[in-house]
Amino acid sequence: MTVRKSWRRVDGVLLLDKPTGMSSNSALQAARRLFSAAKAGHSGTLDPMASGLLPLCFGEATKFSVDLLAADKTYEAELLFGIRTDTGDADGMVVMQSPVTFGRAELEAALNRFRGPILQIPPMYSALKRNGRPLYELARQGIEVEREARAVTIHELWLLDFSQDRCRLRVACSKGTYIRSLAEDLGAALACGAHLTVLRRVAVGPLRIIDAVTLDQLAALAEEARADWLLPPDALLQSLPAVHLDHAAGRRFVHGNPVCVVSPPGRCRVYSGNQLLGLGELDDAGRLQPRRVLGAP
After folding, report:
1. Is 3.30.420.10 the CATH classification of the domain at 12-70+206-231?
2. Do domains 73-204 and 242-293 have the same CATH topology?
3. Cα-Cα-Cα-Cα dihedral of 68, 70, 76, 81, to 10°?
4. What is the pTM of this model?
5. Which band of pLDDT confidence, cut at 50, 70 and 90, is reported for residue 58?
6. With contact defined as beta carbons under 8 Å apart, do 13 and 236 qualify?
7. Is 168 exposed, middle or buried (0-12, 13-18, 19+ CB in 10 A)?
8. What is the DSSP letter of 70?
9. Would you say 97 and 192 are in contact if contact means Cβ atoms under 8 Å apart?
10. pLDDT greater than 90 at residue 24
């Protein structure tokens, strides 16, 4: 007889250190089962070959997961020069090999071209869609379509190590940046080709990998101890200013009504006492409009 899984309400944010070889959705479902969480979502995928920080949202925190999609990301990456693959990473087939003849000085000079605002063509092996179909589906059929270059920003680009035909980079970048494309473009700039061999995400907005936990670590804990790894839903909103309402104004806010407050315009996290009510937006007239409101506990 099969015992049906019992799900329960869990509200919070889990900073998961995703292993390589696992899809983001598989990691999400594994964590969801460990917490028996009725509702769960993630805030942007990591490729199966990539490891590192994958913020997971449970319950009411899922209402704010979209805010992390726009956050800056930081990665540590290893590149192999002299070999280009059809996917831009180590999972692909080799399509070109060239000798590596440059040194550290030439590499440093090439890196300067990719610091700051740049235009980047998304890879064919990506989840971007063309006529409703992901590009990676077309790529697997041998179909390549023209992609429009997109503006992204490389805020910081550090050379951590360089030896013969390999280098390690630390990249802080805006949303929508493809590190595989950065690897390929850097290889093209050095006239030898390159592909990504290791990718690890170490930060998403203000969230850091040092505060993350692995699935194996969670599985080894008792259920009560796992809860200690959950952050409150407002962990995703710490970059926004806080607005505090009295009880009466708080009730109006959670019922979808605007309230008047004295605070600078813009998005904000809204509290009554110590309780998070949701996400609001202030206009120039001081009206606080509810944007996402938490349900009753």
Report:
1. no
2. no
3. 150
4. 0.90
5. very high
6. yes
7. middle
8. T
9. no
10. yes
pLDDT over 90 at 217, yes or no: yes
What is the Cα–Cα distance from 160 to 268, expressed in whole angstroms?
37
Do 162 and 100 meet the contact criterion of CB atoms below 8 Å apart?
no
Amino acid symbol at 1: M
Collect all residues with Cβ–Cβ distance below 8 Å to 66 and sequence separation of at least 6.
43
Mean pLDDT of the 6-24 span: 94
The SS3 call for residue 31 is helix
Question: Which are the catalytic amino acids?
Answer: 47
Cβ-based neighbours of 222, under 8 Å, separated by 6 or more: none
Cβ atoms 230, 38 nearer than 8 A: no
Q: Given a cut of 90, is residue 123 above it in pLDDT?
A: no
Where in the chain are the domains? 12-70+206-231, 73-204, 242-293
Question: Which class is domain 242-293?
Answer: mainly beta
AA letter at 196? L
- Report the chain's terminal Cα–Cα distance, integer Å: 34
Contacts for 156 with CB less than 8 Å, ≥ 6 apart: 115, 170, 171, 172
